[in-house]
Amino acid sequence: MAADQPILVLDFGAQYAQLIARRIRERRVLSELVPHDLTAAELAARNPAGIVLSGGPASVNEPDAPGLDPAIFDLGVPVLGICYGMQAMAQALGGEVGRTGTGEFGKTELELQPDAVLFRGIPPAHSCWMSHNDSVTRLPDGFRATASTPGAPVAAMEHAERRLHAVQFHPEVVHTPQGTDMLERFAYDVCGQDGSWTPQRVIDEQVERIRAQVGDEKVLCALSGGVDSAVAALLVHRAVGDQLTCVFVDHGLLREGEAEQVVETFGGHYRVPLVHVQAQERFLGLLAGVTDPEAKRKIIGETFIRVFEEESRRLEGVRFLVQGTLYSDVIESGSKTAAKIKSHHNVGGLPDDMDLELCEPLRLLFKDEVRQVGIELGMPERMVWRQPFPGPGLAIRIIGDVTEERLRILRHADAVLQEEIRAADWYRRLWQSFAVLPAVKSVGVMGDARTYDYPIVIRAVTSEDAMTADWARLPYDLLERISTRIINEVPGVNRVALDISSKPPGTIEWE
Length: 511
Ligand code: XMP
Description:
Layout (H helix, E strand, L loop, with lengths): L6 E5 L5 H10 L4 E5 L4 H6 L4 E4 L25 E4 L1 H9 L3 E17 L12 E14 L5 E5 L7 E4 L4 E4 L11 H12 L8 H16 L3 E6 L3 H14 L3 E7 L7 H12 L4 E5 L1 H8 L5 H22 L3 E5 L4 H6 L24 E3 L7 H10 L4 H4 L13 E2 L4 H20 L8 E7 L3 E5 L2 E14 L7 E2 L4 H14 L3 E6 L13
Parallel strand pairs: 1-2, 1-3, 3-4, 4-9, 10-11, 10-13, 11-12, 13-14, 15-16, 18-20
Antiparallel strand pairs: 5-6, 5-7, 7-8, 8-9, 16-18, 17-18, 18-19
Helix pairs in contact: 5-6, 5-11, 6-11, 13-14
The site of xanthosine-5'-monophosphate has 16 residues, from loops.
């Protein structure tokens, strides 16, 4: 069976729906999330290797519970129901779902039938993660129960011949220890996949797709220094070579050595046609005297677009624009109702009137998969594993007016901090780690002299997705080294403080 045939996960609104797709992908099988109300014909049109019905917060017996097209079960495509998905399957096929009076939440002991397809090779006494009120109370015709818990006699069921399987518990969460193996059994043994969806495979597929989309037209890509735009650019370059031009707008707000790395990697190592726009003075000039965080963001965002536009108009006949849109952006776009806390501008955004078609080679990939592809393409480690960095750069880490002197101080302090964090092997364990320079001065003493200088704040956080974050418990001796080195080595700094706020109520960045 072809590796590009996806296992489609029908999303019934579970917190964990995305995780199911990710777990299946971990076993190198392509999996995508789709809305639960696609019809059987729409699903069949996508030529899936299998279908997973996700969990969801509703009860199948509620009048407006999210439904599914029962014809799905007649497609001859394997189906795995999880939690709500199991109940939806049972109900659609003539079984019964009801309230047994005992809901189960959290870690639960499970008795598995070892000959069930999903549980091959898994010890029969297993723990699992449950979160349900309803249970299957009568099996649909032809099904047999394949697992039980104290509260749910039918904790799993199968109709092996029709390749229909279901579990009441959550195999996708870490609290079900061999849950990913069960998903693998479904993907490999039931759906016939073989784990050949590798980064190399992704590259080959994308290269083909890009060639088909772009033909012999010219393509433009804005490089930010981040991993997404870098991997997107390298994929496109591999596909269409010098039809691609990359534009790197250097706004002078990057960290130490980052601009040089972009130029060396792309212009030098990969020989990608690269326009390096030195716009540092322009940005600094416009930022002079500006202290309001939103005003800074706005100036940087707009100027970026203007500079990019000027440069790209110089390149005639460009038809396509590369963007590093990720699968998580694709899934989340449209569902965003969160209040605006900060206006995040995306470097690479373009004015509408440029009329370029988008080329988005990462649209199907999660961040960690993008990194795998980057490694496969031979990208330098430092770039592949770079922590997220905001578009407006150091300007939103200087609290107050952005001046050359403050940029120099912050860049230097940040470089020391990064060096120590990396040396202590903490870099990859952190979502982000960086220095902040609040433009206040305090009194200190160095040698025998009074100093009146800036403080540097250490910000280091752990996070899954930047929506929430916790301050990292860095070891004291590491903090001490960072503090001592910054104060000794960075002129203009006489104090180092540690930010111990989580998000919320703090945000990760200071502006
Ligand atoms: P906050 O500070 O809102 O940041 O907790 C959440 C994540 O977003 C990054 N960030 C930005 N990224 N443009 C970006 O591309 C921006 O203007 C911007 N502001 C914040 C931040 O670094 C963190 O990872």
